[in-house]
From TrEMBL:
<keyword id="KW-0472">Membrane</keyword>
<protein>
    <recommendedName>
        <fullName>DOMON domain-containing protein</fullName>
    </recommendedName>
</protein>
<keyword id="KW-0813">Transport</keyword>
<feature type="domain" description="DOMON">
    <location>
        <begin position="54"/>
        <end position="174"/>
    </location>
</feature>
<dbReference type="GO" id="GO:0016020">
    <property type="term" value="C:membrane"/>
</dbReference>
<dbReference type="InterPro" id="IPR045265">
    <property type="entry name" value="AIR12_DOMON"/>
</dbReference>
<dbReference type="InterPro" id="IPR005018">
    <property type="entry name" value="DOMON_domain"/>
</dbReference>
<feature type="region of interest" description="Disordered">
    <location>
        <begin position="216"/>
        <end position="239"/>
    </location>
</feature>
<feature type="signal peptide">
    <location>
        <begin position="1"/>
        <end position="29"/>
    </location>
</feature>
<keyword id="KW-0732">Signal</keyword>
<dbReference type="Pfam" id="PF04526">
    <property type="entry name" value="DUF568"/>
</dbReference>
Length: 263
């Protein structure tokens, strides 16, 4: 029979366990932002990466055999109340804006529903109101908004070359739509650094190789290796950040359980 003191100790140990669990939960919910994205029925994705700039997230499913890439890009357009546009692109020719094959979600007029245009970005000139053809056959383009968060979700499927494993991707938000076309975005640090490499398998990319490893003349991969370029996907496997946060919690739990077992 347990004495009154032992019962008290048990209760105290249980309180510790509960407190630890309760404090750990909000920490998980807030990490990265991927977990908070809830899509309409029928839209689910194998992987998600909380992108390092502009608070954006990319969810995707990649069929390595066929090259089909299905994405949902979530971001907050830069205008007041979420006005403006949001874009996600793959650049098969380099790591910058020139050459990017972009999907852009915006309301052609303030009262219109969201539309998605495609643009083959050939240089630093304004977008038109109409789509231009892109290299990756786009299908199932759609967009909706999460009004409460002022965010837009851009959906689409792109046909990549089978065998593609890593792509240069970039993302952007703008604050205005003028004459039915997305207007120029800001050129702040975060806007300019909103790019990186994406491993379609969902694996975390290793840090960029040291400059000495790059070939003569400097490859575009070495140039694109600025801090924050590589994204940290959070698919089936926990991200290192999450694992780090969970470790002390697990240790405390183990201690508490050990405490109960010894009393
Ligand atoms: C995109 O623009 C470039 C430059 O004008 C052109 O060479 C390329 O063929 C275009 N891509 C498509 C899919 O039209």
């Amino acid at each position: 029979m347990a004495s009154a003191t032992q019962q008290q100790q048990h209760r105290r140990a249980m309180a510790v366990v509960l407190a630890v669990l309760l404090t750990a939960m909000p920490m998980r919910a807030a990490s990265g932002g991927c977990e908070g994205d809830k899509f309409p029925a029928g839209r689910s994705y194998a992987h998600c990466a909380a992108l390092p700039k502009l608070g954006a997230r990319l969810h995707w499913t990649h069929d390595a055999r066929t090259g089909s890439l299905s994405v949902a890009f979530v971001a907050r357009p830069a205008g007041a109340g979420g006005a403006g546009w949001a874009a996600w692109a793959i650049n098969p020719a380099g790591d910058g804006m020139k050459g990017a094959q972009a999907l852009v979600a915006f309301r052609p007029s303030p009262a219109a529903p969201y539309a998605v245009n495609t643009y083959n970005i050939t240089g630093y000139k304004p977008f038109g109101a109409s789509s231009t053809a892109i290299a990756f056959r786009p299908t199932e383009l759609a967009a909706d908004d999460v009004a409460a968060a002022g965010e837009v979700r851009l959906y689409g499927k792109l046909q990549l070359a089978p065998g593609t494993e890593v792509v240069n991707h970039l993302w952007q938000v703008g604050s205005a739509v003028t004459a039915g076309a997305p207007a120029k975005h800001a050129f702040d640090k975060d806007n300019l650094e909103a790019k990186g490499k994406l491993a379609l398998s969902g694996a975390a990319l290793a840090p960029a190789p040291a400059p000495a490893a790059a070939g003569a003349g400097g490859s575009s991969a070495a140039k694109g290796s600025s801090a924050g370029g590589a994204t940290t996907p959070s698919g089936a496997k926990p991200s290192p950040a999450k694992a780090a946060a969970a470790a002390p919690v697990l240790m405390l739990l183990a201690l508490a359980v050990g405490f109960i077992a010894t009393v």
